[in-house]
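Sequence decides. Consider this:

===
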Amino acid sequence: MRLDASKNFDTLRTARLLAQRIRSDDCRVLARLYADPEVMATLGGVMPDVEARTRRFVDHMLEHWDSRGYGLYLLRLPTGAFVGYSGLRHVHVGGAEELEIFYALHAQFWNQGYATEMATRLCMLALDEICAPDVVAFTLPGNHASRRVMEKAGLRYERDVNWRNIVHVLYRRRRAGGASG
């Protein structure tokens, strides 16, 4: 799904966050997040070669922006403090192509409602502005905080799926008036 070129979603705002489109020079700030063992415990563990993997991820997200007109956002407070990231991306998961809401925050910002705030805004973007029929999010089964974020953003547990050879729980939210099946 590609957006109309006249629509620009480079910046999103919520009550407390500024979300800005990822840029090529954002690798360093993301690499620090990916090197944090506490954060990465929720994302499968710290990976070797963090800088190179982060560069590949950023390049992939930049390509996603170019092809789709939306993607990964860096999240900041009004003070400029880096909170984490969130975004929309197309992924193949559970045997289907899906539009996914994804997010990761520095641990100091957990349990303050920031992830829920952004996930809710991204649901609005996906369902109301992009007009996708539905949106998904998935996490490790034991990541209860992320599951609460998904539920508060209106997504409902659908099923277990395999993502990168690890079982995850998949949640879905459908556009109002959309198909139920």
